[in-house]
Structures are given as C-alpha cells and as structure tokens.
Description:
Blueprint: H1 3-17, E1 23-27, H2 33-45, E2 48-53, H3 55-62, E3 77-82, H4 86-99, E4 104-110, E5 113-116, H5 117-124, H6 129-176
Antiparallel strand pairs: 1-3, 1-4, 2-3, 4-5
Helix pairs in contact: 1-3, 4-5
Amino acid sequence: MSKVVKEMMIREIQDRVGDCEEMLVVDSSRLDAITDNRFRLSLQKQGINVLQVKNALARKAFEDTRVSLDHCLEGPSAIIWGGEDAVALSKEIAKWAKELEPLTIKGASVDGQALDAQGVDALSKSPGRLELLSIISGQLLSPGAALSGALIGPASYLQGQLKKMADAEGDGDAEAA
C-alpha cells in the first residue's frame, strides 16, 4: 500500500472517530457474516460505531491524541466508540461478548487511561452516568426530606390533637343542648 493511501486511511480513521476519547477494541473476526451484521446494526441503532482497522494505521491515527490503544492492537481489531458514556458502551459490549462467544474484548482507552479486558469488565459493572446522577440527587435531597418530615411531623400531631379536642368540645355542646 502506498504512503498516500495509508495517509488517507489514517485521516479517515481520525475523521470518523473525531475527538472521542473512550474506545473499546474487540476481535470480531470469528463472527459469521449474519451475526456480525446483526451485532453492528444493533450497535448502530444505539449510536455506537464499529470500525475494523489495520493495527499499524490505528496506532498512527491515535499517536498524537490521548487515546491509548497500543496495548490491545494486536491481531484482528475493531474499534468501537460512541454511545452515552464509557460505562454504557462497556456494558453493551460486555453483554454482546457474553451472548456471542467468538466476540472477544481486547481492551479499551477511557479518558487517556488504558484498560485491559478485565478492566473493561469491571467498568461494565459500575454505575453509569444516569445512575450516578440519580444517586447524587437522591443524596442531595434526602437531608431536605428528613428536615421537612421532622418539621411537619409534630405540627400534624398537634393538628390532630386540636381537632380531637374541637370535636370533643363540639360533642359536649351538642349534648348540653
């Protein structure tokens, strides 16, 4: 392959990936065509991109970026990126890797940090962005809810007692008449 063609392919990889810093590398070479097509279409519906790459060209494409994939670019490699966040991406690919035995996760790069296959598996088991936001908002709101409960509790108890006394007084007036 000529140097011009290689440079065009490197630019194509850079253009398609853009400024994404969260990527996984998998080996999907042992999937049959129908299964691979089903896998890619399912990921595409979720906004996840798959690109089969030549390892040397991928190394060149990412050498001036924070993406660190050198540790897993050996043998047949497909780069996967996109989705909501790195956790959601790793969860989806881990799910597919369990479903499709020939699909193997080779590693990842998340915010410039290299992860091996076990790191990707651990990442897939951690809470995602939306889950973390809901946990944080719940923790932020819980003191306020406890405070309002503490303030409202005695007031409602007092209200109940006053109503009971008013009802008893009203019954007493009705009996006297």
